[in-house]
Amino acid sequence: MITFLSINNFTKHFIVAFLLFFLFVIIFNGGFGWHSNEYEDVDTSGEIILARLSRAMAELHALKAQNEELRNLIQNFAPLNSKPKFVESQLKLVSYQDSDHERDSTLSSVSDLEYELSRRKLKTDINELWNYIKQNVNQTSPFLKDLKNSLLYDIDTISRRNDHWRRNELEKLSNYVQERITKLQNPENCQSARKLVCNLNKGCGFGCQMHHLVYCMIVSMATSRTLVVNSKSWRYVGNRRMSNQKSLWELAFKPLSNSCLDDSGNPRGNWASGPNRDHNKVLDLPIIDSIRPRPNYLPLTIPEEISSKLITLHGAPIVWFIGQILKFLMKPSTEVEKYLNQKRKQFSFNSPIVGVHVRRTDKINTEASFHSLSEYMVHVSEFYDRLDLFNQRMNKKETVKRLVYLATDDISVWKKEIQKYEEKGYKFIGDYEISNTATVGRRYSFDSLKNIILDVWLLSETDYLVCTFSSQVCRLAYELMQSRVPHIDRHMDFFSLDDIYYFGGQSSHNQIALLDHQAQSSNEISMKIGDIIGIAGNHWNGYSKGVNRETKENGLFPGFKTAERIESAPFDLFQD
């Protein structure tokens, strides 16, 4: 359902004006009996007044009913065909509900949503154009690079139009989500609470395990069940236990509840229990790859109840939502928090800084290709060149120090690849000893766990992230980045050398065509405005790869001719 706030305000003013006019007509014609007829006695006049008042109230109620009908028609009215297709597609998915209609606290009209979507798409399209130019021009001139960065500066300047409102609303939304999760995780009576049990025993690395927990929390939020984590078999902490801990999870992170960590309760069942699933007090959840039937709220779906506001405020709604879940889940234990602070001080971790995550070892030739440090540094250099130009536009004379936080599981990056960049003025911080604990043989020790948390944490605190999205650690850092400063949209502050963003086990990732495209070669696909395109990847040369779900064609298409199709579904947690 679509709510146009500007139309709502217009409707309210129209109703008030209509009522005033209606009352004026009644008064002018003696409708309320204030000018009594001299031939009528007092009693008869009083009855007439009451009758007319009753009739007036009935007409007012009828008018109110008609207004509600009008509002329903307006709310369900699809935008005109002249509207950009991507705006139309986003609006059809969402419902914007907000009691405060002040200009500085919410949207005043649909044009505000168009503005937010358009300014973000403009920035994306400039980057797509830049990727195309780099691929097709032998040597990119300083002129083109400076022009691109100057355009991005102007877009950032234009974005300040709604900056105060945007930041305020995004922070309020973050606080709301955190409050709802906290309430869900701390029921008044743990014994009678409906629970969802998540076993932390998935046979994969740290990033994969954290995403498994995210999936469990999403199901918990959608079904309004308190999440209980069973970490008895958590491979990352081995045999290490502490006497004051009730679970291995608490060695690294704070408990997910202050009052309900017990998974007891009857009746108990599993997800596959079919129609009886909702009758079970306790449910055991399988991994995302095995869940059958698949509910409609799994990633990349966002909660319907907050979808309109989230789509307006953030360029990657699902990433922001997952970041909020990780913010709740990954609260460091006292020991890990002390370790993080110690390392920040040791590294002299400051801003501006770019995070570089080089993932190799077991990923190479299985899930990812080899990328030399030089491939990452191209994008590090572009970030700092852009920052230098921004400072010039703002008349800032200082030179920015080129600081890089390097996280890698390959110690040779430290020993063999950074020297030539240090000679160019780059400073690398981090700990190459962490690379040793990230090797396959030592990956599941407690020291390794602390170090991988450190890398994820500090990567998420950088100003820009260069990595490979084939790595779950990289995606984890990118998701957490969105929750570090809750009032800022950080969805553009990354570059991935391989994959586009995805969530393991996700539902289909679709885009919608904004423009017609006729294939120019056998490698391309054709599409019409409104076609749904299943996207498989971005080639970082102006083209993406995907399948036209209407024609079933597979191939390349210009990325600027499509936009994300964002799906939403009801979540019990946000129903009230």
TrEMBL record:
CDD domains xref list: Fut8_like, SH3_Fut8
Residue span, SH3 domain: 506-567
Gene Ontology annotations of biological process type: protein N-linked glycosylation
Region of interest (Important for donor substrate binding), residue spans: 359-360
Protein biosynthesis is among the record's keywords: no
Record PROSITE patterns: GT23, SH3
Keywords: Glycosyltransferase, Membrane, SH3 domain, Transferase, Transmembrane, Transmembrane helix
GT23 domain ranges (all copies): 192-497
Superkingdom of this protein's organism: Eukaryota
Keyword Transit peptide attributed: no
Segments crossing the lipid bilayer: 14-34
Record-level Gene Ontology MF annotations: alpha-(1->6)-fucosyltransferase activity
Gene3D superfamilies listed in its UniProt record: 3.40.50.11350, SH3 Domains
Family: Belongs to the glycosyltransferase 23 family.
Name this polypeptide is given: Alpha-(1,6)-fucosyltransferase
Organism: Blomia tropicalis (Mite)
Phylogenetic placement of the source organism: Eukaryota, Metazoa, Ecdysozoa, Arthropoda, Chelicerata
